[in-house]
Amino acid sequence: MKMTIKLIITLSLIICFKLNIQAQDFENSAPARYQVHQTDISTLTELEILEDSLVFFADSMYNSPVAENRIEGNDRFIQVMKRFLRANNSYNFPCKKLSTKITLLSSPDNAFKLYNWEIMQANDAGRYYGVIQLADGNIVPMVDISDKVLRGGEDSVFTDTRWYGCLYYNIIPQDIGGQKVYFLLGWNGNSINSERKVIEPFGFNSRGKAIFGAPMFNIIDRGKRKSANRFMIEYQKGARVSMNFDKETDMIILDHCESQIGDPAKKYTYIPDGTYDGLKWDGMKWNMSENVIQIQDLQQGNAPADKPIK
Predict the structure, then answer these.
(1) What is the pLDDT of residues 163-189, one digit of tens each?
(2) Which of 80, 187, 197, 205 has the fewest CB within 10 Å, making it most exposed?
């Protein structure tokens, strides 16, 4: 009996010794620890610490394979974002790290900054988030309802609490009667079959309420002219459709799209046909024209330029 007890104790000591050696080996083979910052964390400013937290939660809300974790990461991100925007001098903070994770645009006149991102939900549908930070310190959060807008988006006027969510990529300011109006260019994932690109005017009404949309577009829809509060182009999912301001022509240039199957009613079949449409500002509205860039149909052997490009 005593021999058995001694044997058990001896075996236990051997196992513990081996486990300790394995743990030390694992520790030695683990990646080297390193600091995120070159300087001591105690020397970082409040805004630098908050930005690091935003970058951390942005990774969770984008990259987690579990939808619930993405949503939770987004909730944490929003909580920290509120603290960040309320912190002193946050408007002038460069946000170099954060701008690699979310869309961050500044108006050309530095009147406001726009923070913008998208989260994929459990049903693989995108939900859009945005907040406008004004130079005077006021904050305007936006609430996405784009999934509820099935039709009529071109004719609608939205507000910050009822916003047609999208990811913005450009801001074009215009003066109308001494009042500044900003035209926001954006992208919306729309549905499993189609995507949309959007141009909408943004400003504030007399009560200080953020307004998205106004009758400032003279567009062509299926060959007919009409006025619209917002310019929208819908096209096939995954198609590469460009739409942006071109300084050389002083116009917004976009791909002209047509239905692959010849059915204009089915926007999810639209793809670029190789021609381009344009929107020209006349001081009050954007006027649409078709085929604004002439494409030369070169014959075999003809050079596209008189002089070769070196």
Answers:
(1) 999 999 999 999 998 889 999 999 999
(2) 205
- For the chain, the distance separating the N- and C-terminal CA atoms, rounded to the nearest angstrom, is 94
Report residue 302's pLDDT band, with 50, 70 and 90 as the boundaries: low
Q: Which residues contact 211 (CB under 8 A, 6 or more apart)?
A: 157, 158, 159, 202, 203, 204, 205
245-276 pLDDT tens trace: 999 999 999 999 999 999 999 999 999 999 99
Let me know whether 205 and 115 are in one domain. Answer: no
Q: Which of 117, 143, 169 is the endpoint of a domain?
A: 143
Strands 158-159 and 194-204, sheet pairing: unpaired
Q: How far, in Å, CA of 164 to CA of 131, rounded? A: 13
8 A C-beta contact, residue 151 and residue 114: no
Let me know: does 148 contact 139? Beta carbons within 8 Å. Answer: no
Per the structure, how many domains does the chain have? 2
Q: Which of 143, 173, 198 is the last residue of a domain?
A: 143
Per the structure block, which two tokens stand in for 185? 């260019």
Question: Which residues does residue 163 pair with via DSSP β-bridges, in sequence order?
Answer: 144
Find the domain containing 211 and state its range: 145-295
